[in-house]
Amino acid sequence: MIASRDAHRTSLPSSIGEELRSTLVASNTFKKAYERGLSVAGIRNPSLKYRTAIERIRQTGAVQIQDDRDPEASITIAHVKRV
User: Fold this and answer.
1) What is the dihedral of CA 83, 74, 50, 47, to 10 degrees?
2) Can you tell me whether residue 59 is helix, strand or coil?
3) Residue 83: its pLDDT value, please?
């Protein structure tokens, strides 16, 4: 999961590495990625609820979710298989 922003950040990141570390999340389950992503991006009104999002990721392999009230807040979750 990658978020468009870190809603909990209080200052500008000092490097691109810090920005990536604060907005990327790896998870073993879709539910954890979904919940953590909403939290990191500060999404309170997701455009897709959990059940709809999981069905979409099963069909297409990726899903993007935005906040209905703040379109700049978004997350993208992609299914990645282990090698």
Assistant:
1) -140
2) helix
3) 56
CA distance 81 to 73: 26
Give me 8's structure tokens. Answer: 């909990």
Positive or negative CA dihedral for 54, 57, 62, 68?
Answer: negative
Tens digit of each residue's pLDDT (9 = 90 or more) over 5-19: 777 666 776 777 777
Q: Which of helix, strand or coil describes residue 78?
A: strand
How far apart are alpha carbons 57 and 35 in whole angstroms? 15
The model's pTM: 0.82
Q: How far apart are CA 25 and CA 53, in angstroms?
A: 17
Please tell me the distance from the alpha carbon of residue 20 to that of residue 18, in angstroms, as a whole number. Answer: 5
CA gap 31, 58 in Å, rounded: 13
Burial of 47 (0-12, 13-18, 19+ CB in 10 A): middle
